[in-house]
Design goal:
The structure holds two protein chains of two kinds. By secondary structure, chain A is mainly β. Chain A is built from no helices and eleven strands. The termini of chain A are far apart. In chain B, strands 2, 4, 5, 6, 9, 10 and 11 form a seven-stranded mixed β-sheet that branches. A four-stranded antiparallel β-sheet of chain B has the order 1-3-8-7, with no helix packed on it. In chain B, a hairpin with a 6-residue loop joins strand 4 and strand 5. Chain B is globular, with a radius of gyration of 14 Å. Classes of the chains: A mainly beta, B mainly beta.
Chain lengths: 112, 114
């Protein structure tokens, strides 16, 4: 099946630092989504991207749909302790409107 | 209530027990999903239902039995589980449309099999 390679697997950063993570695929995607999962909870949608080149912000979060349609990145600026969690990328491969494919996740830890 | 609600939040069961997980969505979505999330492993899609019909079963053992009586409710019936089935079970729903769509997840049921 489709594979989404997400990196880094984990990050330890200090409060106030900026964070960047990305997701790549060997095939073209129609949609890119970024989710955050808090401990003991389900993933929550942060940002959805529907067009190649699209750059979208949600507060301190910014995500972009890569021009090649095979990658996406998520940036978090000025991190705070509540940014701790697991961030997942997800997307719909071209040719199918079903079955969202998820990345393996980036675990973010923020130290004071 | 809005969103996707899962009950119970936590469940401890013995290997010979029978239990059911419940998921309810109030978003008017037409597709529902069960995912398994184990420690340090990616989200594993288990079952997909579109308009109450099961459209995908990802080689899930028969000790997991889904049921979707209507487009708002989804159950996962469990029997004779194994300790390795301990995980967070997540339900999600979506509204299918062209161009892709996002899923809305519930908070999950943390299952421990003893």
């Amino acid at each position: 099946g489709q594979q989404l390679n997400q990196s880094p697997q984990s990050m330890f950063i200090q409060e106030g630092e900026d964070v960047s993570m990305n997701c790549t695929s060997s095939s073209i995607f129609n949609t890119w989504l970024w989710y955050k999962q808090d401990p003991g909870e389900g993933p929550v949608l942060l940002i959805a991207l529907y067009k190649a080149g699209e750059l979208t912000s949600n507060g301190r979060l910014t995500a972009q749909f890569g021009i090649t349609r095979k990658d996406s990145f998520l940036n978090i600026s000025a991190s705070i302790p509540s940014d701790v969690g697991i961030y997942f990328c997800a997307g719909h491969p071209t040719g199918t409107a079903s079955k969202l494919t998820f990345g393996t996740g980036t675990r973010l830890q923020v130290t004071l | 209530e809005t969103g996707v609600t899962q009950t119970p939040r936590h469940l401890v069961m013995g290997m010979t027990n029978k239990k059911s997980l419940k998921c309810e969505q109030h978003l008017g979505h037409n597709a529902m999903y069960w995912y398994k999330q184990s420690a340090k492993k990616p989200l594993e899609l288990m079952f997909v239902y579109n308009f109450k019909e099961q459209t995908e079963n990802n080689s899930v053992p028969s000790r997991f039995s889904p049921e979707c009586p209507n487009s708002s409710h989804l159950f996962l019936h469990l029997h004779t589980l194994q300790p390795e089935d301990s995980a967070l079970y997540l339900c999600a729903s979506s509204q299918e449309r062209r161009g892709g769509y996002g899923y809305t997840f519930g908070s999950g049921t943390r299952l421990t099999v003893v």
